[in-house]
Amino acid sequence: MALGGRADGWAKVQGRAVYAGDVRLPGMLYGAVVRSPHPHARILRVRSEAARGVPGVRAVLTGADVRYGTYGRRVRDMPVLAREVVRFAGERVAAVAAESLPAARRAAALVEVEYEPLPAVLDPQGALEPGAPRVHQAAWRYPGAVVGPEDPPNLQSRRVWQHGEDVEEALRRCAYVFEETYQIPPAHQGYLEPHACVAWAKPDGTVEVWASNKSPHRLRAQLAACLGVPAERIRVMPVYVGGDFGGKGSPMDVPVAVALSEATGRPVKLVVEYEEDLTAANPRHGSVVRVRLGVDGEGRMRALDVRAWVNGGAYAAFKPVEHVNLNGFAEAGNTYRIPAVRIESLIAYTHTVPRGHMRSPGSLEANFAVESTVDVAARALGLDPLEFRLRNLLRTGDRGTLGEPWMEVRGEEVLRALAEVLAQGGGAGGTPRVEEGGWACGVGVALYCRAAHAGETEVGLQPRPDGSVVVWVPFPDQGAGQHTVVRNVVCKQLGLPPGAVEVRQADTDQLAVDSGVGGSRVSLTASAAASRACQELQRRVEQEGLGGLRVQEALAELARRRPGEGVRGRFSGEELWLNSVCAQAARVRVDRGTGQVRVEEVITVLDVAEILHPPSHRAQVEGGVVMGLGSALMEELVVEAGRVVSSNLHEYRLPSVLDVPALRLVLVPGGKGWGPHGVKPVGEMANVAVAAAVANAVADAVGVRVRRLPISAEEVYRLLRAREARP
Amino acid sequence: MSEASVELWVNGERVRAPVWGTEFLAEFLRERLGLVGTKVGCGVGVCGLCTVWMDGKLVSSCLVPAVVAAGRHVWTVEGLVALAEGRVADPPPGLPSGRLVRAVQQALVECEGLQCGICTPGQLWAACALLQEEPNPPEDQVREFLAGNLCRCTGYQGILRAVRAAAREGRCVGG
Questions:
Q1: What's the Cα-to-Cα distance from A690 to each of A246, A349, A545, A588, rounded to whole Å?
Q2: Which of A19, A245, A626 lies closest to B155 in CB terms?
Q3: What is the reported pTM?
Q4: Is residue B56 part of a domain?
Q5: Residue B58 sits in a domain of what CATH number?
Q6: Looking at the partner chain, which of B1, B80, B117 has a beta carbon nearest the beta carbon of A240?
Q7: Which residue in A191, A190, A326, A315 sits closest to A637, CA to CA?
Q8: In this predicted structure, what is the pLDDT of residue A512?
């Protein structure tokens, strides 16, 4: 069946798709925020007279004016507006609502805040040392905290994963131990829509919210906890989200917009400037990752110890997961058979911008460190890096590195497919070193394996008298194509053409549950719920004795007999033991004179099962590779003296079309998918291993090991010169 | 900091609205006129989300003070849609043809030339302006022309496929 273009395609090419910042309500005011210039300071005084004097200003609020609690996705430690102290440069200190945006910004600039700067701690290792300045006086008291009074005062989260033999013992027995340390800088998710919301605290005590947020039901619960009202009083309305990549899952500015709305009795729109989003939202953590890999005399991996020190910033509020950690670290080494594994991730509070999730959180960090170390080991042992990986691969039937009973592991199929592609143009083992001028060529590979998870969601189906169906979903399409996937499931299962199925986002009153978009789980979860809704609808058709009619006639008749009625399908997650494997190779050229690295091609080989909408599946991979290249080569959110100094997109450079090399994609079909449609997740696969593949290619080309992202010409130059200087 | 008023032509219609001296065209179009199809990203002329057509040229409307647009002809994505739907009686010279706009829209949808959609109105302008000027551009020229419009979702592959498809006014094909 032809499954058509994206469900949201025409709305978007006609500029009709409505995002939070596009919402305009009668009587709406505009908000603006005053932020701290200091990483850590006491607030001595706030003077707002001048701000109040700006024509059109309707409210100026400080922390003392807001009676709400703190907020967060899991740990509720973030104040709506700072009270007494500020804990990072960029923290909200005051907020203004005015009749126009220029008036609001003008007034915000006139709010005078007097501070007493305090000593700040900026890096995670320093923060965990005894006597370090405290970011919070008693972090364990915050609702949802995962630390206790016995922990170091600046600990935000500590997580240990271990399996098999004692890792120290196993390392002692190894013929070779490779110890390496890698640095992964903070980065911004790079969504192009800055955070935006409209909040309306109505006179009847209910609150309506439009927000650039991918998890409306979770947002409602988080807001209810912050405002201290029952969730039923909050209604989160449907809007499109202009890019997410992990960064659009928190309440962010919504509580302050609600406070401004409550103070003025009018709806308030709050759209931050991109500069504020870059410097004061919830970027990727910066990490230092130490790896110790033990290998025996036969070139087999016997032990892996990974320890990460992670900068969590001033608040834990933006991490949604149970342990408030970065679960991607658990994937360290998971593509290999390693009998002793220990992984520890320590996240510390610091006086810097609070950190959140970015597409495959923790995965890129773990992968860059481990897959670089694997290459270091292979080259030191005189083994071909691809061959070394093949020798150590985890295979179907093996337990995972942490004991996971995987349904299957397709590392071998994927890596052999990559080897085949490379062999056609010179494999990693027999790199063609065509050198002209000072340029050297190299190829590097890296491997990634990601577990799939299912969430919880509900999908509604409503037949219409014209024989078409409205599909109600509780989550937005933030670009990944989940509305299209749901449409295609319904088309397939009911036997309808795409034109007869319209996907609409419900508000939080219309459907009951949803865990939101994230963790690459939405296609799995929503396709399962949609499938159940379809079964229910088919049952309804049978009950009404309409089974003999053609589908659209039956649906039309059903709609006529029971006007406005629909059915629902719900699905709640279960442990899947499903994973997907991705192998990537980068071909690079490196200028020995300047250190410049040019990526010529990225080859991505991906383990797939059933694909519900091939064009958006492919786009997820292509977009992922380019995001991976951004992390590998370009992107670093520069923090100096505690302040983010990458002030806008001219300094924080995202890949443009000119930065994109040739991309080759090879799908390895035949994987065992999950659910009624047998699918595997894709959203967070192709962005992860690119950095390690590029670093390994640079090592292949010029023999230097880059241990710090992004892989800059300056760093490669420094390494090349340092090597020359060695006797 | 006082309010004045400004008069200009937007999508072929004369409009007059109050404006602050510090207000930019993007904000003016969105908040004063309600033409929210034009998006705002970086606000400093890097990302291309706010691309509009002004007197024959594409501009970043976040960089053009609204008062500078006084007396000028501005076209937004809403105007492009009107062109595509044949609702513009007498389009000024230099605007892409309605037929071209439809072809590019169709190609963007079919070739997955969009995902979250926030950059799409800007990409649509860039692609239409390029193909209006050069109906069958070589790959290098396409990349050069689109370099001012960032996209975080697609890795640009779908957009490049769409431009190629629209240039042929044909269907989207892989590769």
A1: 18, 29, 56, 12
A2: A626
A3: 0.96
A4: yes
A5: 3.10.20.30
A6: B117
A7: A190
A8: 81
